[in-house]
Design a protein that fits this description.
The complex is a heterotrimer of chains A (about 220), B (about 220) and C (about 270). Chain B is mainly alpha-helical and about 220 residues long. Chain B has helices at about 5-15, 15-45, 45-60, 65-75, 85-110, 115-120, 125-155, 170-180, 185-210. Chain B is built from 9 helices and no strands. Chain C has about 270 residues and is an alpha/beta fold. The chains are: A mainly alpha (about 220), B mainly alpha (about 220), C alpha/beta (about 270).
Chain lengths: ~220, ~220, ~270
């Protein structure tokens, strides 16, 4: 069995196109998931029971079903009603799924802040919005960085599932190329390396963030 | 949403549940055994073992699961390993989950207080004895939550086997809606079944945690 | 309430679930007074202190601070509390120093001190910084203005915390066992700052285990046990010649470990009670 790596060089442009779609999917779903996750986290911590329950229900649902099922809902059910493109449905499916995890991560971060910080801020007569913004959330972010980033790396990898609704991102293009050239080993290895490269970049970025937010001792 | 379609879809989709659970069970067992091996390699003092373990983790956590599945299904036949969709999926899922469970196992063992090892040494116990009777039982308690959480994810990820033609629940659901173009009902049923399964796992986890809880 | 009385508490009850921690307390603090609150662990001293700035909400009772009613019982027995704005208005003039310092770890010392004046009083940064440096100077830490809390010793952190509370120019300062989390040899520097504050005429409510400090600096002492004020009076009396047996046995147990106040030999005094 011989390997012909020239397939990869010839297909390189297409692989890069696919990578680009992957990155766009990743960026948009990450944004969506973070914003929605933040909202869900604050809802879960609110004093209104309804908000707490809605948030809890959302997290239970979206952590209980596979991403693929969320994508199916987004594409076949919601997307058809709302006239979304495959890409948009993909972002919706990936984003809503990831939001459930982001919500838990953000909530854990906020809750990890020492209650004494709340008390000190309250005793200094600061308003809640002021001290949430200046004192609590910055400290929560520091705690959140590792789990947030490791989940973010997951979002990048999970974007590959979008192939199931016809989005031609990196995995999708690789499968097409592999079918047409009949060189699966070379092509899937190339795709694997591209993913490894991207995840490693994110890991390095995570370490940078952890250092940047560390408390000075 | 048409409820009669829901009721019709349910038994059709449920037929795939045994495949889903079968994929899950095989991959969980194989993945945990492999993960244990990798964890022990990482904890050993042999440099080559540590490096191999680290490479394994980096590789199988850095590559998307779907790529692993496609590799097992499309690429392995090229080297003579012709696996059915089911076994290709089990292979991919096992390697993938092993990488994550290895971390859980390793962290669990490390998390057991250093003082426990020291106390055992001071009492003259051999390392293997203290591992078996002191360290591992305690580390199991620590490992239960993240282990179950990974297992729950594994259960959900079996849905990707649909992309390598395994007739588990998700594939059967697709067959239904590609035939009758009724999307919301079968997808709803599929979601509910997964939700029920993952909820059972969560409850199971709570029970196990309670059993292994320290008596106070 | 006479204008000289800064804090007026009556009928203070507090329960956490089924556990009644404060069982009916009445006390007053006059302007310029230093009141020490002593008692065994779990007696409710910290809870009582935290009610004064409403960090804890009483289950029953009336609390008035600086002419403002923080909470009181209605005719139907329910409790009404001041609004958030009113509570903040009171807290502007009541400073609190905590056992675990609670400094903002992502801010430097000077940033900790300027945060509230800027946020609450709208002070300009330059003015706030100038005042902060003065305050840090007065607690002996001007040279550590740009240090972060984790770079400071416990005693230094607590002194920054005191400066932070003083930055709001409070009429009343609450101290919650502020030396308990600090290595014994560093406690002295904190107590010195508090002593000078007292000498400058600050009204202080101090929950403490430091009997020497109480004897030297406090005007009055309240002995709390099981949620009730068992004994109160001038410091020298409560610490030197306690009237109640519970006060006596508490003091015996504490002073055993670090004799601070000269006591007349008491027939009941045993060398080792614990």
């Amino acid at each position: 069995m011989e390997l012909d790596w020239s397939v990869v060089t010839r297909a390189w442009d297409l692989l890069i196109d696919g990578t680009w779609v992957t990155l766009q999917l990743f960026a948009w779903s990450l944004l969506f998931a973070t914003v929605l996750g933040l909202a869900l986290a604050l809802m879960r911590l609110s004093k209104y029971r309804v908000l707490r329950w809605v948030s809890l229900g959302y997290v239970w649902l979206f952590r209980g079903i596979p991403v693929l099922v969320a994508l199916f809902f987004a594409f076949f059910v919601f997307g058809r009603q709302a006239g979304l493109s495959a890409f948009q449905a993909g972002v919706l499916g990936l984003g809503t799924s990831a939001a459930a995890y982001k919500a838990e991560i953000i909530r854990a971060g906020i809750m990890s802040v020492d209650p004494g910080q709340f008390e000190a801020a309250e005793s200094l007569a600061m308003t809640r919005s002021r001290y949430m913004r200046r004192i609590i959330i910055p400290q929560g972010i520091r705690v959140m960085v590792p789990t947030y980033m490791s989940n973010t790396i997951l979002v990048l990898k999970v974007s590959s599932v979008a192939v199931a609704i016809g989005i031609v991102e990196l995995t999708g293009i690789t499968r097409q190329l592999s079918n047409s050239t009949n060189r699966p080993i070379e092509l899937f290895t190339a795709a694997a390396f591209i993913y490894l490269f991207l995840t490693t970049v994110l890991i390095v970025f995570q370490e940078f963030l952890e250092r940047r937010f560390a408390l000075k001792t | 949403m048409e409820w009669d379609v829901v009721l019709e879809s349910f038994p059709l989709i449920w037929k795939g549940a045994s495949k889903t659970l079968s994929l899950f069970a095989w991959s969980l067992v194989a993945g945990t055994v492999l993960g244990l091996a990798v964890a022990l390699m990482k904890l050993s003092s042999a440099k080559t073992l540590i490096w191999s373990a680290t490479l394994f983790s980096w590789l199988f956590r850095g590559i998307p699961l779907l790529i692993l599945l496609f590799y097992a299904f499309f690429a392995l036949p090229e080297v003579g390993w012709l696996l059915s969709g089911f076994w290709a999926a089990v292979l991919g899922l096992s390697l993938w989950t092993a990488a994550y469970q290895a971390e859980v196992i390793r962290s669990g063992i490390i998390a057991v207080d250093q003082g426990q090892t020291e106390a055992s040494d001071a009492l003259g116990m051999t390392r293997s004895h203290s591992m078996r009777r002191i360290i591992i039982p305690q580390s199991i308690r620590i490992m239960v939550p993240p282990f179950t959480s990974n297992a729950t994810t594994l259960l959900k990820q079996t849905s990707l086997a649909t992309l390598v033609t395994v007739p588990e629940m998700t594939l059967l659901t697709q067959r239904i809606f590609s035939n009758n173009f009724k999307f919301i009902e079968p997808i709803f049923v599929l979601a509910m079944i997964y939700l029920a399964m993952t909820t059972v796992l969560i409850i199971g986890q709570l029970i196990v945690e309670r059993t292994f809880r320290l008596r106070t | 309430m006479s204008p000289n009385v800064l804090v007026n508490v009556s009928g203070l009850h507090k329960s956490f679930g089924d556990a009644e921690v404060l069982r009916g307390m009445d006390f007053e603090v006059e302007r310029g007074e230093v009141v020490a609150i002593i008692g065994p662990s779990g007696s409710g001293k910290t809870t009582m202190l935290r009610c004064v700035n409403l960090l804890e909400r009483p289950s029953a009772g009336r609390i008035e601070v600086d002419g403002r009613i923080l909470c009181e019982e209605q005719a139907d027995g329910s409790m009404s509390f001041a609004s958030k704005t009113e509570i903040r208005a009171v807290r502007e003039h009541v400073g609190m120093v905590f056992q675990r310092f609670n400094l903002f770890p992502h801010f430097t010392a000077v940033e900790n001190v300027i945060e509230a004046p800027m946020a609450v009083r709208g002070m300009k940064r330059a003015d706030a910084q100038a005042r902060a440096l003065e305050l840090l100077e007065s607690v002996g830490l001007a040279h550590k203005a740009d240090s972060y809390p984790l770079q400071l010793s416990g005693g230094q952190q607590q002194r920054v915390a005191i400066a932070r509370a003083l930055a709001m120019d409070p009429a009343l300062m609450l101290f919650d066992e502020v030396t308990s989390s600090v290595d014994p040899e560093l406690a002295g520097e904190i107590l010195l700052v508090m002593k000078r504050l007292a000498q400058d005429g600050m009204t202080m409510l101090v929950v403490t285990h430091e009997m020497g400090f109480a004897a030297e600096v406090a005007d009055r002492v309240l002995f709390i046990d099981h949620g009730l004020i068992v004994e109160e009076g001038p410091a020298q009396e409560v610490l030197g010649k306690p009237k109640h047996e519970r006060t006596r046995s508490f003091l015996r147990a504490v002073l055993e470990r670090a004799p601070m106040v000269e006591e007349e030999a008491d027939d009941d005094a045993q060398a080792s009670t614990l």
